[in-house]
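pasting input
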Amino acid sequence: MSDGQHHILSVLVENKFGVLARVAGLFSRRGYNIYSLAVSPTEDDRFSRMTVVVDAESAPLEQVTKQLNKLIPVIKITELSAGEAVERELMLATVKVGAESRSQVTELASIFEAKILDVGYDAMTLMVAGTPAKLDAISDLLRPYGIAELQRTGRIALPKLAREPMKKLRAVRNKTA
Amino acid sequence: MKLTGAQALIKSLEMEGTEVMFGLPGGAILPVYDPLIDSSIRHILVRHEQGAGHMAEGYAHATGRPGVAMVTSGPGATNIVTPMCDAYMDSIPIVVVTGQVPYAAIGTDAFQECDTTGISMPVTKHNWLITDAQEVPRVIREAFHVATTGRPGPVLVDMPKDISNATMDWYWPDGVDLPGYKPSTKGHLKQIKDAARLMGEAKRPVIYAGGGILKARAAEVLRELAELTGIHVVTTLMARGSFPDDHPLCLGMPGMHGNYTAVTSMQRCDLLIALGSRFDDRVTGKVGTFAPDAKVIHVDVDPAELGKVRRPDVPIVGDCRLVIEELVKAVKADRAKREWPSLEEWDRQIDQWRAEFPLKYDQHEDGPLKPQFCIEALRDNTPDDTIVVAGVGQHQMWTSQLWRFNHPYTWVNSGGLGTMGFAVPASIGAKVGKPERMVWAVDGDGCFQMTAQELVTASAERIPVKIAILNNAYLGMVRQWQELFYEERYSEVYLSPDLPDYVKWAEAMGCVGLRAETPEDVVPTIEKANEVDDRPVVIDFRVDYREKVYPMVPAGGSNDDIILGPEFDKEGGR
């Protein structure tokens, strides 16, 4: 989501201890605000991928990527803008429910394709995955019932795949033709 | 061959060509000090770890080779944080080795434990915590590579005690494998061509040379570029000496205390050719009003500097020497195709500023002694290739303004961080690196008191540095600001001229101590100091505390509002 308020950076880093501290330290030292951050190893366990959502107002994107690039364990940075990425986020929410609201919350859950993970005496825990906007929507709708606890993972994202051959390649082909 | 981690560390430092290191042992680094006895490396035992760091910096400044410092864990490591930060700001290659508590004890609040890699992370280019003795040669190789390539800077290697004692199979890596570190040094040829084209259109160009010229060993090719194009050069505080001050195209230092011509030529130019400089706030003044009519060519090896402060019209990522070499070719090619505009009018304007607004001070025959007079006397009574080191404050600005730097690597100072106490240890490091050269530190009385104990190191190690204290009994620069901007309300700036007694203190530290109180004392005292070559010398110059550094651009103000000072007010000038 490059909605003007946030930039999403997908940062490939060496999977070594202390790398998260280096990235986080750089952000705080340069005065950039991290909106959300998700980290996990990639398919190649020598590397991890960080999806960093940065508050755009606190940081000119170019400086953020240039400064990040100076960190030695940072291998590659990709900026993922709205149209060019698929992004998802996971949310767990514990909602207070009474006898009559239980079915309403269950109904909301089914509309949003949320899963009910746990049901208690006066509350239930839902899990929902989707775009950040979808999570915003369901949390807004759940709020009137009373949200006891809520946890979001922060978004993860990957670039969208090409639907046609890359232009550059076509150009090369044209040249040889 | 089986070695201990400690032996591997010392051997790796030798493999990297380390001839000298500065340090102070302690518990966690003890195992590494043992094989040092059998090593070819000269170790200089400092009196405080901060001294070790600044000596390593002074050594690196003067020689271009990385300075090496070694200290223990905990307080040893925290004491060297200031020099690392200083080196980080000024892009000085130093390698710091710290001892650490045994690996298993990390995180337990063990005796003399601190999170050294955590603390040093924001003030180093990179750091390493060694977790296995087998890693030692690889890490040291990487550390030197990172410190000295791309934009140079400090690195730190943290060595747990048990790993120093563990055994490993010795090897020496062929090279380094750092997939995330590939500094680009060759500039983009198209961009370089564009730069030449802009230069060929400019009517009022100025070259803004920064510390990157010196780091890239680009002084010669800078001179070639300037002479080829006839473009004047300003040399920033970090670049003094990168272009000879006696060259007709040299404008000297720009910035907050730069001379009028350097500051104003940048303000009025239509093309600013920034080479290895970073648009520091002390140079630009208020950024929005800095060089308002100028197009900007910006060459820097660190891509993050391009566009950080001022958006360049032509950004070029690359090593200054390689880029300028290509730029010279591109300029020649461009000139072969078309005629470049004459710079005659601009040159005349610059000459007029130079004649009208030179640096000025007034030394009366019968005193009080002016600090500027002492610096000029020192300049005129020392060899041309003397290495000059300064602390931070008024004395630093006067020295940078008034010295004539005609050779690169003759000026060593703390620019970005502004570290008081830099001069004494940095001069020792410079003298160790260049023993054949005369090394003079110009220091303030406030600065001197911060690190003077390192003169004990210098005496013990027979390192004959010379220190000129401009003793005005004040934290002079702070006093200047309080006088000008805080209605002469002097808060906590008085130091006393004779507490301590600098001559006695110098003698107690094994140095020759001298004092000069009147203008006629100055030259004979300097001559006496120059004759001493078996131990350090300290001169206590008792100078006028009222003297202020001019010109001055008030902090946050525009460079257009430069204040020339009382010498010009007298004549009814600005």
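fyi Chain A is about 30% helix and 40% strand.
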